[in-house]
Amino acid sequence: MNRARCRDRGATGLRSGCHSRSVKLAGAMDEHVLRFGRFRLDPVRGVLLHDGAPVRIGPRATHLLLVLVQRGRSVVSKAELFDLVWPGLVVEENNLQQHISALRKVFGPEAIVTVPGRGYMFTLAPEGELSTASDPGRETAAEANGAPAAAAHVREAQLPAMAPLIGRESEVAELRECLRAHAVVTVVGPGGIGKTRLALAAAHACQLDLAGGVWLMDLSVLADGGRVASTVAHALGIVLPTASVSVGGPAGTIAAALRGQDLLLVLDNCEHVLDHVAELVDALRQRAPRVRVLATSQEPLHVVDEQVFRLAPLALPDPADAIADTDGRAAARSGAVQLFIARAQAVDRHFSPTPDVLPAVVDICRRLDGLPLAIELAAARLPLLGVQGLQQRLDERLGVLGARLGRGPMRQQTIRAALSWSHALLTRPA
To answer: What is the SS3 assignment for 156-170?
Structure first.
């Protein structure tokens, strides 16, 4: 393992993820009709009834409803909904919004909650499956009096699916070993270098090792660091007491609820809420030592026993091999060039990395410093500019990379957005 990458800072202070294309509803959901008041949903036949009469919402909306119900009042990301309901298709976001709107007209506006920056959550519980543990808005008498939520109040983990990670195979293996050896690991690197995707890939690799699964929390949407604890608690289904009588505050309540749990929390994009994340992690280390934390940030958390995993850009071809590499095969094995080729072929099926094209591709990747986001944005412009055109336009580096990639977080949509996100973190001079 590369010890230079994963360093011991000492005292410097989802279990799903394997989704098939068809929705499989476990247990009772495979065998019984689900009841929501006057509604009946048959998962096997894909039929929704109201007072015994069919509700005509269409097959896509029914499929969407099944996915949301399956998650049992957990947030489902838009990307995952697209992948499960429209597999292999390019669909505009307003198409998803129209189907969500249709379901809200049937069940009521409160039945499906929009969680900004994350996705959607179905709030109705099927009859016979009442559980205060999975209802973030419900409190028991003990919780209302300030008692911490029990460990059983943790929901079933849900880890979003992801596309294969290109050019990071060794880093995924190293990060997985780092997570096995240490309870708190922070992937550190500049914006656009691929911290989130690496963390997700490592989390997928680790999820079978953890009885409690893997939980992903995207903190980039939080403008107020004071919402870190409540965001984590809500995702886990832990009810925070309304009175300020719990030991250790919200972070202490979460830690108490997770005591004895063998799970991994992935806290993504921590750089703008470092102090609040550090407070939560410290509480977890003290009261829930079996919980592991994988954070991504542009800066370390500076907590006790933190392991910093510094992420470098994608590997570039060795210039010393250029003379001997007459056909470009060696260059094509580098992570940066592999990523460019994969993304180029995704937008232009006729693109072929021939020996006469590869030198230009290598030059593009080298001039972009192996930065994954920049390479993906450049490859997305290939149908418009061609390889030679990309080379010529790289003098206008930010301009040529201004196209949006699609459904990712806004900070990952363009190089300008990535730089703006990083710039906003800088301290203004006094």
So the answer is: CCECCCCCCCCCCHH
| Contacts of 378 by beta carbon, 8 Å cutoff, 6+ apart | 340, 364, 368, 390, 394, 400, 401
In a domain, 84, yes or no: yes
**pLDDT tens for the 430 residues of the chain, in order:** 454 456 544 433 333 333 332 333 333 333 457 787 888 887 666 788 888 888 888 888 888 888 888 776 678 888 888 877 887 677 788 889 899 999 999 988 888 888 777 888 888 877 644 333 333 333 333 333 333 333 333 555 567 777 789 999 999 999 999 999 999 999 999 988 999 999 999 999 988 788 888 898 889 888 888 889 988 988 887 877 654 445 568 898 899 889 888 999 999 999 999 999 999 999 999 999 999 999 999 999 999 999 999 999 999 988 766 656 666 678 888 999 999 999 999 999 899 989 889 989 998 999 888 999 889 888 888 898 899 888 888 866 544 554 444 444 544 444 454 444 444 444 444 4
The answer to whether residue 240 is domain-embedded is yes
Do residue 350 and residue 290 come from a single domain?
Answer: no
Structural domains counted in the chain: 3
Same domain, 258 and 335: no
- Whole-angstrom distance, CA of residue 39 vs CA of residue 48: 7
Whether residues 217 and 279 share a domain: the answer is yes
Q: Is the pTM of this model over 0.70?
A: no
Domain encompassing residue 183: 6-16+156-310
Q: Are residues 115 and 179 in the same domain?
A: no
367: CB partners within 8 A, 6+ apart: 394
